[in-house]
Amino acid sequence: MAVQEARQGGEHIGAHGGGCTCGDCPHGAREGHRRAVAAFLVKRDGFAAGEGLPAAVAHSASASRQWVSDELTQSADTVAERGRAEGGAWLARLWHRTALAVWGGFVVLLLVQALTAIGAGWTAARTAGLLAALVVAGTLSAASWFHRARGGALAPVIGEDNRLSTSRAVAVSWVLFVAYAVLVLAGRLAAASDHAERDALISGLELARGAGVVTVLAVVCAIAVLVRRVVGLRVLGQRLQKIPADRPRAADLLTDDAGRGTFADIQYVAISAVALVFAAVRLARRPDQLPDLPWGLAVVVLISAATYLAGKYAEGGRPVILSVVRSREAGDLDAPIRTGDDIEIRGAGFVPPGAQTADRLSRMVVRIGPVNVHVPLVPVTGGFSNPTDTLLTVPVPVDVEPGRVEVQVVTAAGVETNACVVDVTD
């Protein structure tokens, strides 16, 4: 459908309607991005099939490759610009959805309280639970409005790379739950008229009752702060490549920057969710004290958090050049590297996670001596054959002086590889 839309051109375009592409409204930004992507796919697949080349460059393989790469780069820049506009518009309207989700949760709690009260009767604990939920929902709604340009209530869990942070999401979940539990106890304490009942509620806040929950809360909050520090230092030390996303997605909680599921994130979210459900059930059964999370379950959560932190230390790594050789096509004679020849740079980590889009790939540069050579985009049906994560092919420009020169790759994340020395002859 997207390809058909692009080939139809500008048909069915209405002012701020279903075909709005002006960018003045959220729908227009979304439609403009969709059409830009469709046009880019048509152009890329057409060039891959050998269509659309002007006669002036068709006779030269290198000239046609460079012309195609430049055309695709310009189209990819348009897609990236529309994508950023669409991401900003999506964040701006997200605060409505977060506020609706918060109040939807309050309504669900109200229905559950009303249904479970049938036969058992309404109690002061149910009233305190609803009032605590009302306070939490109101606070989140106010925060959502103040951060409406950055995703509403989700703003605190959106990382610097514009993705949802797993560590922050888990920490925020535990903070909200503990705050809700304390508010329930505060509501019951305010409504209690008997001295013995008030003393029992105050004793429910003692550390001996909620040591497991307090320990888990402290650890997950520390993990959230430590992970941010670890990632920042690894990026500055060029041991981790980070590419910003156009907008956050729910899948970010379970995947890496490339969208692949990661064990460390999945197990951390799953175990934390199970522990939160258990703690919520304990609070519902014993609303007169902090949930007494068993130490066995608390230790499981701590092990999960340690695994997640170890995964953050283990991920990433600097890109590396293993070798540089002269590119040889069928029928060519073996020869040394000369100016004008294509060279193959073999290694690993040339394409950072999340940099598989054309606008990111077009930012890759190979430094051959003092000359910076932009890596050409070579399209094939459904993607690109150059550049790849393990292999780059670039021409040696005539400005390179013969002799021993260093070759380095600068990735889309701005990270430089090691230098590899090659001999260039006349």
Automatic annotation (TrEMBL):
The chain crosses the membrane at residues 100-122, 128-148, 169-191, 211-231, 263-281, 293-311. It comes from the Bacteria. The keyword Transmembrane helix applies. Keywords: Membrane, Transmembrane, Transmembrane helix. The keyword Lipoprotein does not apply. Signal peptide: none annotated. This is Integral membrane protein. The lineage of its organism: Bacteria, Bacillati, Actinomycetota, Actinomycetes, Kitasatosporales.
